[in-house]
Amino acid sequence: MNLSVLLVKDFGTVIIMKGRGGQRVRVYRCKDCKGCEYFGRCTTSSIGQTVHVSEYEEFINQMRQKLSTPEGKMFTKLRKSIVEPVLGSLSHNLGFRGFLLRALQKVRGEFVLMCIAHNILKIAKFIRKSGRTLKEALNMPIVALNTP
Fold this sequence. Notes:
Number of helices: 6
Oligomer: single chain
Structural class: mainly alpha
């Protein structure tokens, strides 16, 4: 069990407020941290500890448990090798941080253009590695591109 969740039981003041992204967050504030048995482990602040608990905390913990199973670890590993490098390349190398357009159809079009740019860069890298010029690669049959 998480130490912050354990501490929430002993806190006296509860405030419900909007957190990041507009989600509701319960804020627990302790009145007497100096006398608490956890003092020093959770805070050294003289004004007391504050714990923010998301309204989705239960779902977050369920997903953590699911991802800690062998099957969940396999899916996480697979995602890291398939999806994450592409998204990292789009954001870091191409500077894609967010969509400029609104409406689902327009956003899909914008994302398709980013994917096309990513794939063109991959093809260019492959041609460069094969030691051919672009002209040579374009004149070759498609099947022969896989052999250097």
